[in-house]
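Hey all, quick one. A colleague (J.T.) asked me to put the uridine-5'-diphosphate job into the tracker so the inputs and the structure tokens live in one place instead of scattered across chat threads. No bug as far as I know, just bookkeeping. Sequence used:
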Amino acid sequence: MERYSGKAKDIELLDEKEVKIHFRDSISAFDGEKTEELLNKGEVNCRTSAKLFEILNEYNIETHYLKSISSRDLLCEKVDIIPVEIVCRNIAAGSFCRRYGIEIGTNFDQPLVEFFLKEDELHDPLITEEAAILMNYLSGEDATIIKAVTLAVNHILRNIFKSISLVLVDFKLEFGRSHEGKLIIADEISADTMRLWEINTGEIKDKDRYRKDLGDVIQHYKDILERLETITELPNIEFNTKTNIRISLKDSVLDPAGEVTFRSLKRNEYENIESVRLGKNASIKFSSVPSESLYKKTQEISNRILSNPLIEETKLSMEYFETSNEG
Ligand code: UDP
């Protein structure tokens, strides 16, 4: 049986489609420099992850989670992990404050999505989207989908935590490709991978308790889980996903309107202009969460209805935005 042991979890390959993820009691911080065993941590994180994945799946966010098979084991789809960690921030904390000198607790006007290269030896450095694409860690298409999905997850989780009096400061997601080639969320989502503060007091409830030696780590993790388990009805969330399609004539095709514009610019003595090509834009708003399938659906709409693939080429991007004030 093929097995892989990480810092806090063991992965057992069951077949080419599924894995069993076992949550141990280990906790670590600072690139594994500080480690400890905390009684019941595995169970609490396993149950928290299961609950959060179930919630995300309810909202049609595609994840690797299939079911809980014991208090410490999850059955999940096997994925090839994309070696880029995605961090989403609502409030400044942690490495963001160290990097930019901004005060902990500064609220952002809108959530920020950052990419980090998953490479222990380099201490998981921040990486630009362009560099990650250039080095083939992911494609441009993956990047636009991943950012939109992460923002939708943030919208959902912020609402969920707000309903149990917690503030979602930031969190980390990992994405992978399933055996069917589907882009889905993988790994775990727990107090180890997010920052949560008590709404009224700002008390720290997450792994920062361990990083900063604040004590009672598992008591706080358990409290988060217990509050999550009181949720019976999920809040109604208005999802807004937008796909943008830029349509332009292929370079080899004559563009008479562009040509007319070009000549007019020359007549008006604009200099150093070599050519002008005109195109069009379409944006489609969906009232659903972003996903790779929605991206593919837009591609199909674009090729079948919006453009003529014989003479035109298209460029797609995906965005997620919040319009309402739920959270
Ligand atoms: N995070 C994580 N795994 C990592 C790095 C970060 O789960 O390898 C989480 C971390 O718990 C926090 C968020 O991602 O919720 C942002 O972490 P940050 O970049 O601030 O780094 P840190 O302060 O944890 O070094």
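Adding what we noticed when we looked at it: DSSP finds eight helices and 17 strands in the chain. The helical segments are 41-58, 94-100, 129-134, 140-163, 208-211, 217-229, 256-267, 292-306.
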